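> Could you send the Tubulin-specific chaperone E prediction when you get a chance?

Sure thing. Input:
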Amino acid sequence: MKYTTALCIIGIRVIGSCGYVVQGWPSYLVEAGWTADGKIVGITEPRRVAATSLASRVADERNCILGADVGYAIRFDDCTDETTKIKYLTEGILLREMMGDPLLTSYSVIILDEVHERTMLTDIIMGLLKKILRKRKSLRLIVSSATVDAEELRDFFNTNSASRNRDEDTATILSVEGRLYPIDIYYSAEPVADYVQAVVETALKINDSEAPGDILVFLTGMEEVDRAVSLLNEHAKVVKEGKMKLMPLPMYGSLPNNEQLKVFWRTPNDSRKIVVATNIAETSITIPNIVYVIDCGFVKLPWFDIETHTNSLIVAPVSKASADQRAGRAGRVRSGKAYRLYTEEAYNDLIASTPPEMQRADLAPAVLQLKALGIDNVVRFNFPSSPPSKSLLSAVELLYALGAIDNDGELTDPVGMTMAEIPLDPVFAKCLIASGEMGCSNEITTILAMLQVQNVFVRPTSGQAAIKARVAHRMFEVEEGDLMTLLNVYTAYEKYKTNSWCQKYFINSKAIKRATEIRTQMRKLIKKLKIPLSSCLGNVELLLKCITAGLFPYAAYLHYSGVYKTVRGGKDLHIHPNSCLYTLEQPQWVLFGEVVQTNKTYMRELTVIRPEWLVELAPHFYQRTAIDQTMVEDRNCIGCRVDCEGHIGTVKYVGTVGNTKGQWLGIDWDDPSRGKHNGTYEGLKYFETWHPTSGSFIRPGKANFGISCPEAIKVRYGYIDDELAGIDRDSIASVQKSINAPFVEMVNKKQSKFDQLKIVCMQAQCISSAGYPGELAALCSIIEELDLSHNLINSWKVVAEICTELQILQQLNVSDNHLPVENGMEIYAHAFPVLRHLTMGRMKYNWPEVMQCLKAFPSIQELIVSYNNIETISGVEESLNIMKLTELSLEHNLISNWNEVLKLGLLPCLKGLNLNSNKIEDIRFPTTEPTDKTHLFPNLTQLHISNNNIRDWQSISELEKLHRLQDLKFRENPVLKEQNVQTGIQLVIARISALQYFNGTEIIPSERRGAEYDYLKLFSSEWRSSEQDILKRKEFITNHPRFPALVEKYGVPDTSESTKSTQLSSNVITVEFVCPDDPNIKSIKKKLLKNMDVQKLMGIVQRLFRINGKIPTLSFVRPNVSEDEIPLDKPLQELSYYLIDEGDLILVRW
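Output:
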C-alpha cells in the first residue's frame, strides 16, 4: 500500500476468498492510520443489500453504532455522519460523489468489491479512478475480485508503461486463497419443464431425506422468487411430523432492507431456512449455514437493442463461472450439495463467463455521468472493456434528443446539468424536469417512485384469491395505461395508509411503503434542484405529455398484423399479461418502460399516447429521412463479397428472377444455413453454389458492399493508447440526418489522431477496398500489425493495394476472407517488403496454394495456416521464401501421414511447429540405429502435436532423435489414455532427454529425476530379461532408445525376487527423521505406510518432535541414489507419489 497506488486482490480457487478484504481490511486500514487526518476508507458494492449488510456486520465487529464510525450510503438512504471512517456505498453513489469532489479528496483508500461482475458502473469507476490516481498520488485503490483476470487489471492501473522494471510499477497483485469444503454436484437426468416447480419439489425432497442445513435457491427474478416462496409456504403448513419445519425467505434487490436482513438470522434448531434468491446471492452476500444449493440454470440479464433503443430483460442460461459461483455457496460451512436443474451436457455447453454489462447495456446513463464529470470526449475514455461503437453513438443520440447535450456535444445548462444530478435513468430524469415546466411534478414524483419498486400488486397464482385480486386491481385500472394506474393506487393508499387496506385490495404494503420513502427523498431532491412542486389538478393529458417528453424513445404502434412494433427498428412486441391494457381494446400508440423476453417479447409499464406528441416533443428523434437507392451493375457486382445481417457471401448473379419485378442479387453464402437452394428458382439455374443449400436471392438494398480500409479505420479508432473508441460510419450518417447534429462529425475529427496507430485490428469491419491511392499512407503509415480477418475482401490484389501503403508492416492477418490464389503471386512482393508474420486461417487452401501465396512474401518468418484443407506437403525445397520460416502452424488441417511432416524437416531455421488437431497416427524418423539423432529439423525446439491419433509409445521415443526439442505439447492422444495422467507425464519426460516444458509446464530437475527413475524401475525387468538375447535387446532399444543412457546414469534398480516379494507383501517402509538445522536433536526411525499423505506425516512430526503447533517443512533424501533434497510440498499427496522408499531420510525444519 505504501509503494503502489493500486492493489489487485484476486481470490483464487474458490468463491468468497476475497470476502475478508471488504470486512476485515477496512478496520486494519483505520488502525494503520489511513483515516487519521479525517479521511475515509470507502468500499463500493454493486448492490444495496451488500453495502447495508456489510456495514452492519463491520459496525458490530467494531462495537460501534451503525452510522457513526461505520456507515453506508445507498440511493435515497445515507446512514453516515461527519465522524464516519469506514463507508460502504453503492457504485452509483460514489459516481455521484465524484461530481462534487472530482478527486475524491475526502477518501484516503477506495476498495472496489465484486469487480468480476463487470457492471457498467464498475467499468466507469475504474476508468475514472485511473485518471484520479494520476492526479492524486496519495489516494490508494484496492480492487477485490473472485475471478477477474489479475494481469489484465494490474496492467490497466499500472502507469509504468515506459519501463520494464517491475519495481517501478504503480499496481501490483495480491492473491488470496480461499478454503472450500467438498461439494457434490447433481444434474437433472433430463431438462425440466417448469424450473420454479422443480425448485420447490427439490427443496421438499432435500428436507425429507438430507441432514440439517439451510437451502439456497437461485431463480431469475422477483416474480419467480415470490411464486416459489408462496408455494413453499403452502407446503410448510403440512410438513410431516418428525421433519424439520420450513422457513421460506425471499431475497432480491428491490426487497426492503429489513426484509433482506431476515436471511441472515439464525435458524431455530428444529427448522430449515430456504432462501429463494436472484443472482444477488451469487457473490454480493454470504448467507450463513447454507449447505444445499438449487440452481435453476438461468439468469435475467439487461440487454440493449441499438436499433430500437429498447432495454430488454432477457432470461438466459447462466455462464459456467456463474454456475460454479452458485455451487460454491454450498461448501462454506461444511461439505455441501448442489442440485443443478439441467443436464451435465447443458453445463458443458454454457459460455465461460457473462459479457461485461458495458458491452450489452444502454450507455446513455454512463455517457451522461461522464459528461457531468468533465469527460468531454467520451469515446476516448479509457474503459476497461471497450463498449460497442454503435451503443456509444446511440447513447449520444438519445441524450441529444433529450436535450442533455447540445450541438457541440457539451452538457446543456440547466437541463443536462440537472439530469446528471438526478439518480434516475435519463428518460425518467427528463420526465421529472419536464414536470416542473408543465406543472405536474406532484404526480410525476409519485409515478416515478412507484416505478422504482417492484410487485406493487399482489397476484396469487390460483384459486379464489387470484380471482379476488384481479377484481380488486380493476378498481384502479384506467385506459390510459399502467403508469396512471400506479398513480391511482398511490392516491387511494394515501387516504388510508393501513395494512388492512392493502390486504383488502391485494396491494404489496412493503412495496408501497418503500415507494413512499423514495417519493419523500425525490421531493427533497427536486427542491434542492429548484424544480417547483405543483399539481396538474387532474389534467390527464398534461401528465401523459410529460411522460412522453421523457419516454419518447420507447414508442410502439399497433401493426396491422396484430402485434406492436417499435417506431425505431420495427421490433415485434406484445402487451404483458399483467398490464391493465391486456384485457382492453388495444390502443394504437403506446410508450413502454421495460421489455421482458420470455416466450414472447413483452412490453411492461405502458402509457397510451397520441402519435403527434412524439413529433411535437421529440422532432429530432423521429424526423424521417430518405434512403438513397443504389444502382448496381453486373460488371461491378459479380464476385463481390457482401454482408447481409451478419452473414457473408459472394455475389454470383445480378438481374431479374422469374416474373418478379426489379433486380435481385444471387448470393452464394459462406454459411449454407443462410441459403435456401442451389441457385435454381422455378426450374431455372441462375448460378452455381458451393453447397446444395448455400444460395438465395436478396434485394440489392439489403446487401452491404463494404467500405474502404481507411474509412473503416476512421470510424473504429481513436487516438488514446490505440484503444477502440470509434463510431460506426453508417450510424453517424443516420444520426446526422435524423437529429441534425453536426457535433458528431466534429467530435469524431477531434479524436482522429491516427498517425500514431501501430497495432490495428480491423476484424469484421466490412472492408472491401483499399481506398484512394495514398489515402491510407497519409492517414496512418506507421502501422506494424494489421488484422484484416473476416472482411469482404475478394482478392489478393486488394490486400496488396492496402499493404503497399504500409511499408513497415510486419504482421498481417487475412483469415476468413475469400481470396482466390492467382498465378504469379510474386507480382505482389513489393507490397510486403518487411512482413515477417502472416496468418491465413480458414481460407480453404491446400498446400500448393499456400506455397503459391508465399511467393509474395520475401521476408516471411512466421506462418499460420490453421483451419485449412492441407493433407499433403510438397515443393518445400523449391521455395526460397519458405526456407526462412522459424514458426509454422498447421493446426486443424487434414494431415494423417508423418512422412508428409518429414518434408518440412528440410527447413533449416524452423524452431516452432504446431500440428495440433490433425490426424497423425504415428511418428517415425529415418535413422540407422534407434539411438541415432536425425538430420531433419535441426533447430526445432517447440512441437505441438495435441489432438491427433497417436497410439504407440515408440512415437514418443522417436522425438528423442530431435537435436533441440525443449517444448512439447501432447494432449488428447489415444496413447495417453492407456495410463493415468501422472504416469503418462512421467513416461513422456523420461523418454525425451532435452525436454524442458511439457504441456506448458516447466519440468523441474526433481520431477525429471523421479520420472527417469520410475521409468527405469518400470521396465528394468524387461531390460534384464533381454541381456542374453541380442534380437530381444535390439527390439527393446527400438522401443526404449533412451534406456541405455538412463542405465548408465542411474544404474539398474534392484528388482531381486526377495525385494519384490517384500514390496508386494507389505506397504510398510522404515524411514529416519533428521533435523539438519539442529544437530542436538536426535534422529528418529519410524515405520510408515506408503499410502499415508503428507498432511498426516506433518502431524506425526509435530508429535515426535513436540514443536508446539508449528507447521514443519519436510523434504527427503535418497542416500543410495542422490544427495539432492526433494520437497514434500503437496499435503494431500501420498508418500508413494514421491517414491519414498525403505531407508530414505526425512528432513524436518520449522
